Amino acid sequence: MNKFIINYKLKNLSDLDFAIFDFDGTIYPNLFLFDLAKQFFTINNNYKKLTDLNKILLNYNSNKFKLAYTGFINLLKDENKDEVLDVSNELIKNSYTYAKLTIKKLKNKYKLKSYLISITADFVADLAKNYFNFEDVFSINYLTSKKSNKFLGITNDIIDNPQKMKIRLFNNLMYKRKLSYIYFFDSIDDLLISSNASIKVGVNPKNNLKKSLKFDIILNESPDPWKFFYNSI
Known about the structure:
The protein is α/β, with parallel strands linked by helices. Helix content is 43%, strand content 18%. It has ten helices and nine strands. The longest helix has 15 residues. The protein is globular and about 50 Å long.
């Protein structure tokens, strides 16, 4: 069932400076890193890490974000980055088809550059940059060994609160500039970035987020929430 709510004149898109996209749940339907880990460890018959992954997911669903995220970073420790990327290259094809088409249309028709801000891993964000043709991506830096190319189980970034993590990445993009942007997102983690967005677009937004702010546009169509929006711009 289509639910497309517009409180903004889409013809004004040309007046914006750029577009910003969230990743998990917005242009990729689920949590990419969890899907990736599950597939990777299943392929490699690593049942111990699959069990650990389930524990991490329980912590995540119990709002123990820091514990879950740091647990996931440690879960990848000693895994070869290239082997993980091989699985990632296939998995990203499960992203919303019309999200990719929308990004292309925003660039070609409205001259809008698109950026990704996500607390996913940098190797996933770099993959998304090429797949969606983002101008640039801002994400969490997962460190690897220069010698073995294996994950070290640490990052260059502070892991604390998802809203704070995202706003720090956002500040790296903005660096004190006052520019107008359209923001596509789905969860309460995006609340701080959305506060200054000229157009707020919820893509299957979570209920707690819908109670916290007023969207200009809500996309809630199955199986691809982006289709009607793409056809409307």
